[in-house]
Amino acid sequence: MHPQRQRIETYVAEHPGAHFSELSRELDLATGQVQYHVRKLVRGDALARKRLYGRTHFYPPSYDEWQRSALALLCRETAREILFVLLEEGPAHPDDVADDVGIARATVEYHVDRLREQDLIDKEYGEGNRVTLSVSDPEATADLLAAIEPSLPDRLIDRFVVLVDDLFAD
Q1: Predicted confidence (pLDDT) per residue in 90-102, tens digit
Q2: Which distant-in-sequence residues (6+ apart) come within 8 Å of 161 by Cβ?
Q3: Cβ neighbourhood burial of 30 (10 Å; 0-12, 13-18, 19+)
Q4: Cα separation of 170 and 35, whole Å?
Q5: pLDDT per residue over 126-145, tens digit each?
Q6: Can you tell me the distance from the alpha carbon of 77 to that of 50, in angstroms, rounded to the nearest whole number?
């Protein structure tokens, strides 16, 4: 196997859900190189690919569709923090989650919608239409969270979103 392909495959095995630009940045490869080698790896079934919410993510082929979708979202700090809160504290109202994570309620709703689309969160309506959020499959979600190590640029982008959120909240 070509050495660059081996590097990409190893990186994806260690960072499941890595997106295309992350591969280029972290492996210090030109975009064209990444495109070429990733295409070969996907065609050869050495990597799986999933496009979700504007990004193409890559996985070892052993990950199923749910895991791929879940990891794509868990790589994003705010979505991950929402899940951490729900795993630690159990079912909660969106206002409580927003307070615990330190973000605006609208931002929680944005991420909850995506987390629900990918079957990570359940949203139930109780008495008086009171909404309760809970993790759909706590064990499987906790296992995937253990596999995540977000890159520094991803963390910085997520922190910037929270900062902008705080500015508009004031």
Answers
A1: 999 999 999 999 9
A2: 78, 107
A3: exposed
A4: 43
A5: 888 889 999 999 999 988 88
A6: 19
